[in-house]
Write a structure and sequence with these properties.
DNA-binding; mainly alpha
């Protein structure tokens, strides 16, 4: 399937921001950097804030799609889902992680392009993570709390790995955390 000009521009902007950060660059400067005109960016996104809003949405959608794909695989143990999702996210974070945290900071500062991020940064993740906890055998009343803790721990470990470059240690910490937060699978009954 061929992507549209809008999708190509969005992808080029995402890659540009991943490489250089968002900063306070003008729409003209961004357009020049990605090989288009500011008029094309205005046509497709309305403004710099509109472009950044779409970049935020694209980053969030890709992560949620990855989790949805993993949880949709029948017979995959919740711990395996957690470890596979971590591997997917941490691999992508080597490229997009600094952008993720920069845009998260923009949400904390209530910048116009990131205001919606306040609604998408945590809340949409809680339902699928709560379901995963329940599938693992976490009691229903504890599952939402463990889901929120898991999201916070994963983001903290991701931040640490991006700052220090110690992804192997973060991988080990995620595996240890999964053992702590997810109940051990029930042993098969002996014949």
């Amino acid at each position: 399937m061929k992507s549209s000009g809008r999708e190509q521009l969005l992808h080029a902007a995402l890659e540009h921001f991943a490489e250089h950060g968002v900063g306070d660059r003008s729409l003209r400067s961004i357009a020049t950097s990605i090989g288009t005109s500011h008029r094309m960016l205005i046509y497709h996104f309305g403004s710099r804030d509109g472009l950044l809003t779409e970049v935020v949405a694209a980053v969030e959608a890709a992560q949620r799609e990855a989790l949805a794909e993993l949880t949709a695989q029948p017979g995959t143990a919740p711990r395996e889902v957690v470890l596979r999702f971590w591997a997917t996210v941490s691999a992508a974070a080597r490229r997009y992680g600094p952008l993720f945290y920069e845009l998260s900071a923009h949400a904390m500062q209530s910048r116009p392009h990131a205001v919606q991020r306040r609604e998408t940064l945590v809340e949409p993740w809680l339902a699928p993570l709560t379901d995963l906890m329940r599938q693992a055998g976490v009691p229903p009343e504890e599952a939402p709390v463990r889901a929120r803790i898991s999201l916070a721990v994963a983001r903290g470990l991701l931040h640490d790995a991006l700052v220090t470059g110690e992804f192997a240690q973060a991988d080990a910490a995620v595996a240890a955390f999964a053992d702590l937060v997810l109940p051990a699978p029930a042993a098969a009954p002996r014949p």
